[in-house]
Write a structure and sequence with these properties.
mainly alpha
Length: 80
């Protein structure tokens, strides 16, 4: 594996651990759902750009994925 892949995997593990801590330990925090949602979107971006090689894709696909995630985040935050 390349060094970038190992760093990304480590970052994904850290973000997953932080998400689990927010879900179990700090579940009484008012904005815990929003924090978990933002962390999930960051993890999705890491996986999409690093492991699905979206960074080598056409600009259209990059913009489409990022736009979808922004719209999804806004809709979810409105519903919370």
């Amino acid at each position: 594996m390349r060094k970038n892949d190992i760093i990304t995997l480590g970052l994904l593990i850290v973000l997953t651990t932080i998400t689990a801590l927010f879900a179990t330990v700090w579940h009484s925090v008012k904005y815990v759902a929003m924090i978990i949602l933002v962390l999930s979107e960051i993890k999705f971006m890491l996986v999409a750009f690093q492991f699905m090689e979206l960074k080598k894709a056409h600009v259209f696909w990059k913009i489409l994925v990022v736009t979808y995630l922004i719209i999804f985040l806004i809709l979810m935050l409105v519903m919370i």
